[in-house]
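Hi V.,

Quick status before I head out on leave. The structure for the redesign project is tokenized and pasted below; the design run finished overnight.
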């Protein structure tokens, strides 16, 4: 059986959340759980349950809010560890820092529009650096830094 790849599109900003596993009935990685109200957990969990997967890692490709809004509730639900580049780690608890000069105003607008949401340092974070070879969920991965969009992209 080949690689299992599924996508859940976030309710807001249409960012892609990827679920990647070596096959159904195995461990998996969830990539970039974005923005939905109250979170993307329900839709991610439906796909994971359908394929009988067990999340063991949540990979955040970069620290922008649209890629980690649902991280804390997802981690609380499944207990998976978090992978993020060391230069974007602080954006998990302070996402307004990644929103430019108007970040605080934008955060206020987001909270006014979508309701309050907790941003805090997740448990079990592994910092990535410029290039990382990892084996997760039985898959070998090469993760390369591509800074520009954020310092830790």
């Amino acid at each position: 059986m080949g690689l299992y790849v599924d996508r859940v599109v976030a309710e807001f900003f249409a960012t892609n959340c990827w679920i990647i596993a070596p096959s159904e009935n195995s461990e998996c990685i969830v990539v970039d759980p974005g923005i939905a109200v109250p979170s993307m957990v329900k839709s991610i969990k439906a796909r994971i349950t359908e394929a009988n997967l067990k999340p063991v890692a949540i990979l955040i490709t970069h620290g922008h809010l649209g890629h980690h809004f649902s991280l804390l509730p997802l981690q609380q639900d499944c207990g998976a560890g978090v992978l993020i580049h060391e230069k974007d780690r602080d954006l998990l608890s302070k996402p307004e820092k990644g929103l430019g000069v108007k970040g605080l105003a934008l955060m206020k607008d987001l909270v006014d529009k979508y309701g309050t949401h907790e941003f805090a340092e997740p448990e079990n974070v592994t910092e990535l650096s410029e290039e990382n070879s990892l084996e997760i969920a039985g898959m070998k991965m090469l993760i390369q830094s591509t800074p520009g969009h954020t310092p830790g992209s």
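Above is the designed sequence. The CA atoms of residues 38 and 117 lie 8 Å apart.

G. will cover questions while I'm gone.

Best,
W.
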